[in-house]
Design a protein that fits this description.
Layout lengths: L5 H19 L4 E7 L2 E6 L5 H15 L15 E4 L2 E6 L2 E6 L18 H18 L5 H17 L1
Length: about 160
């Protein structure tokens, strides 16, 4: 963004718009959170699909109406990638699993680097609990396979 404080200023700047915008849409938004430039929310659909589409488009236009800022508004869906999570609504449950971008190169610090040994062990002791925490209980096998992938990538380094 150009200068170190720019993300913090952008966050504050857009929060001024959210202060008025989010209450305006409270009948359609059950949940709304933003982290710098990423927004996640739960949209309450209207029974009439045409009206729901119009409301969604109006909401997206409202988000984009603040001083030329443009957001990528994805269509409402039951599954979304947000930060390092894939969040899915299955029936009456919310399930999560680890999301990794396709272009992630997994440049972990190799064990033979000049870094203190605790940096390497800290990577392991931080990533394994993180993977278990992000994968919900229903996906225990997936969490185990993600941990195996992590170990394999670490060994390649």
């Amino acid at each position: 963004m150009g200068t170190p404080p720019a993300p913090a200023w952008a966050t504050i700047f857009y929060a001024l718009h959210e202060k008025d915008m989010v209450p305006r849409w409270s009948s359609n938004i059950l949940f709304y959170k933003r982290f710098v430039g990423d927004v996640i929310g739960i949209w309450l659909t209207d029974p009439d699909p045409e009206k729901d589409r119009e409301l969604w488009n109006a909401f997206c236009k409202d988000m984009d109406s603040w001083h030329g800022m443009k957001w990528d508004c994805n269509k409402p869906t039951n599954s979304v990638n947000f930060m390092d999570l894939t969040i899915t609504i299955e029936g009456n449950r919310i399930v999560t699993t680890l999301y990794e971008k396709a272009l992630n190169l997994y440049f972990y610090i190799p064990p033979f680097s000049s870094h203190p040994r605790r940096v390497f062990t800290g990577t392991i002791s931080g990533q394994i609990p993180r993977i278990r925490r992000l994968c919900t209980c229903t996906y225990k096998d997936e969490a185990d396979s993600r941990i195996q992938e992590f170990i394999s990538r670490l060994l390649v380094r």
